[in-house]
Amino acid sequence: MKKFKIGIIGTGGIANAHVGAYKNCPDVEIIAAAELIPGKAEAFMEKNEIAGVRFYQDYKEMIDKETELDGVSICTYNTEHAGPAIYCLEHDVPVLLEKPFTVTLEEAEAVCAAEAKSKAFITLGFQPRFDANMQMIKKIVESGTLGKVYYIQTGGGRRRGIPGRTFVEKSTGGIGALGDIGCYSLDMVLNALGYPKPLTVSGYTSDFFGKDPKYNWDYKRFSVDDFAAAFIRLEGDIILDFRISWAMHADTPGDTIIFGTEGALRIPSTDCWNGSVGGPMTLYHDIAGMQFDTKIPLKENSASLWDQKIRSFLNAIEKGGPAPVPSSQILYNQAIIDGIVKSAECGHEIEIKFAE
Ligand SMILES: NC(=O)c1ccc[n+]([C@@H]2O[C@H](COP(=O)([O-])OP(=O)(O)OC[C@H]3O[C@@H](n4cnc5c(N)ncnc54)[C@H](O)[C@@H]3O)[C@@H](O)[C@H]2O)c1
Predict the structure, then answer these.
(1) Whether the model pTM is above 0.90
(2) CA distance 244 to 148
(3) What is the pLDDT of residues 169-196, one digit of tens each?
(4) Pocket residues for ligand 1 (CB within 6 Å)?
(5) Is position 330 within any domain?
(6) Same domain, yes or no, for 14 and 123?
């Protein structure tokens, strides 16, 4: 049996989920790992009971020396997404990059430019894409049941759920709730709509909870957003009303709702970063001039989202692409996140400008 030779860059928390899923694949061999912190990758592989791995501190040295790599999982913190992704693509090594795409739009554009010149592809680590309920949202929108979609409200959040470590420092996380969980909420609706191009953003971010010792023991290190809200205009005359929160005095900033000219879909306020929707959805529509509410029961997944995420990467490697979650889509996701940051900084609506 041909074995996919896989490398891992960054052996922190989420790398466990990657190697856990790779271990479920009899056709995968993890041959190399790069990790900045000395000894961490060795301990990580030992804990995960993976032998025969060659270790590097510098991912560039790993890519240069490990010429047999079929693909790499990049599991570094956000500010270290673009560099390794670009280096892998420049060396024609397929990449599975963790979310969010990058910190800034400029970095995401640089990764896309490297991919355009590469023989390899990059796919983004949005495992909710493989969830049966997420897929149903897309099927409903694509079926035309809602008519022309003109307004979407989306987002989500946790009453108290500020993460720790590398998520909350600007030097490593770069952005806070906005990037960490906001990217999932945006993907849920933008993917359903076929990723219309974002045009303008009026955004707001705050850090009231993260910086307050009442709510965050690690408040001194906190240097990113814990809440963001935005009003975004999308191509096709669609309005996106978005809010996301790591902490708030409420259980939710509201359900996701998609308004169309023929119907509307309500998706209960969702822990979409956990991979699925928060409960049965409701379709509001008229039949023969009468108003009906149709409950859409939750579907079970046939396989774990992580196993599907990893298998989709391996299948794309085997076929030479296309990427299961392409950069061309997630570039727009990142453009919105970046637009919210820039608009919040200047205090007014901004136009999203892409590189020529
Ligand atoms: N898909 C998901 O469900 C999910 C869940 C959690 C985190 N994530 C994402 O995964 C990424 C990592 O999160 P984490 O919780 O594992 O963070 P972490 O801080 O635990 O791990 C990151 C590791 O990368 C290493 N690293 C950083 N830069 C490096 C470089 N240039 N070369 C080699 N190693 C480097 C760090 O030393 C650290 O060990 C984040 O971008 C996060 O958003 C995704």
Answers:
(1) yes
(2) 25
(3) 999 999 999 999 999 999 999 999 999 9
(4) 9-15, 34-37, 40, 59, 75-78, 80, 84, 98-99, 125, 127, 165-166, 180
(5) no
(6) yes
